[in-house]
Amino acid sequence: MTKTDERMALLELIEQRADGDLVREMLAYAAERIMEMEVELRTGVAKGSRSPLREVQRNGYRERDWDTRAGRIALEIPKLRKGSYLPSFL
Questions:
Q1: DSSP state, 88?
Q2: Is 43 exposed, middle or buried (0-12, 13-18, 19+ CB in 10 A)?
Q3: How far apart are CA 14 and CA 9, in angstroms?
Q4: 80, 57 Cβ separation under 8 angstroms
Q5: Among 87, 79, 73, 32, which residue's Cα sits nearest to residue 57?
Q6: Which residues are bridge partners to 61 per DSSP?
């Protein structure tokens, strides 16, 4: 293998690694949006909003790792004061 071939192989490896990071970031973003929409439906109002129609209040987050084909993604799953919440994609 020549030096040029070695450099090309190294560049391809770096690009693949970058693609994996991008995919994980996109999955994390999508998961966060899905969780926010699901919790919003369950509570009856958007995060940070006040409403007399509120059904349940938020109570912080719990951390959980989500193992995907793209790698491990750290999630912050919203907690509720009454009842429980588990994202639909888990």
A1: T
A2: buried
A3: 9
A4: yes
A5: 79
A6: 78
- The single-letter code of the amino acid at 78 is P
d(CA 34, CA 36): 5
16-39 pLDDT, tens digit per residue, is 666 667 888 888 999 999 999 999
Asked whether residue 15 carries a pLDDT value surpassing 70, the answer given is no
Q: What is the C-alpha separation between 84 and 75, in angstroms, rounded?
A: 16
3-state secondary structure 23-74: HHHHHHHHHHHHHHHHHHHHHCCCCCCCCCCCCCCEEEEEEEEEEECCEEEE
CA distance between the termini of the chain: 45
14 touches 63 (CB < 8 A): no
